[in-house]
Amino acid sequence: MLMAHFNNLQIIPATDRRRIIRPVWPEPIAMCGPSFPMSRKNKAVVVVMGATGTGKSRLAVDLALRFGGEVVNSDKMQVYDGLDVVTNKVTDAERRGVPHHLIGGVPPDADYAAAEFCRDAAAVAEAIARCGRLPIVAGGSNSYIEKLIDGGGTDAASPGLASRFDCCFLWVDVAPPLLHEFVAERVDQMVERGMIAEVRALFDTNPKADYTKGVRRAIGVPEMDGYLRSERSTSDEKERSRLLAAAIDEIKANTCKLTCCQLEKIRRLCSRWDVRRVDATEAFRRRGRDADAAWEAAVVDPSARIVKRFLYGGGESGDDVGDDEFDVNVANVANAGNRTIVFTAATVAAAAAEKGFGGGGGGGAKITTSTLAAVGATV
């Protein structure tokens, strides 16, 4: 199925030495699944948060299939073209037919700041709602989510989604020791899937590139620099093997540090937003079919009940979920962290037309470049 997202972009010359990216908007098409019954809230958005590796994208797809939604990525590294393994972009099989937006489309060397993301994600969310579908925000950058929801910044014309939508916040949480074990194993799996070759190909395009710009900020790229340079400078296999092992260990350590920073941010957001915590620890303890069953029972089912009550209320239209069952107990959360955003989006044509993002002719949507902090600076 054709999906409406920003993958097809045209680079347009700019006189201010910045790159301008114009999405080519598709024609309105029928999206997967039915739209919501009109009895639900007309302006609603679900935001799925969690540390890296906790299953945010998986839950977003599960909810999209149940509630007629679409996913809009908010991971600030996944908006770039390339490095699909390094940035853990959701695969076609993992999407299960659910349209995903803002995955890829930005050139690897460009900078895509929070302001650009908020503008584009808000337009997509508005379009989804107009189509009678549910926007589901999920990704990996909590600072982007915060700006998207609350607004702020220099563009007063772009208020946060909270001023236009009712927001439902879900937090997928996993016990930190278990999560750290999982993300370390995932790095090993990424190596098996071709991570080193992916980074090498990017490195070869410009060995002197700046690791504070664009997709090169992603964890898994700067750590490989010493090893990749050794491939050009030494024939000592033992030394190269040592450097590779050290790089992989550093990637694992930095990923674990990222989860801690992400959780700290989520805890701060919990003090301002009505966030519902869903504990996925048991699902991560299981293996095989038991893990899938545990995920459904411990994560999907309670999350679906929360969203159903959010959309329809209790009683006849939705299950009445007790507040105590899903209250966030911040005091008992170990310090780990992650900023994640996931959005659902239907056809973007409606919002595109209103915002002047026409697919042909005059002024298209523009994604301008701007400086971004290094990956560790803003989660």
UniProtKB/TrEMBL annotation:
GO CC terms in record: mitochondrion
Origin superkingdom: Eukaryota
InterPro entries hit by this protein: Dimethylallyltransferase (IPR039657), P-loop_NTPase (IPR027417)
Biological-process GO terms, alphabetical: cytokinin biosynthetic process; tRNA modification
Pfam families, sorted: IPPT
GO molecular function, one term: AMP dimethylallyltransferase activity
Catalytic reactions on record: dimethylallyl diphosphate + ATP = N(6)-(dimethylallyl)adenosine 5'-triphosphate + diphosphate; dimethylallyl diphosphate + ADP = N(6)-(dimethylallyl)adenosine 5'-diphosphate + diphosphate
TM annotation in the entry: none
EC assignment: 2.5.1.112
UniProt KW keywords: ATP-binding, Cytokinin biosynthesis, Nucleotide-binding, Transferase, Transit peptide
Job of this protein: Involved in cytokinin biosynthesis. Catalyzes the transfer of an isopentenyl group from dimethylallyl diphosphate (DMAPP) to ATP and ADP.
Family classification: Belongs to the IPP transferase family.
Protein name: adenylate dimethylallyltransferase (ADP/ATP-dependent)
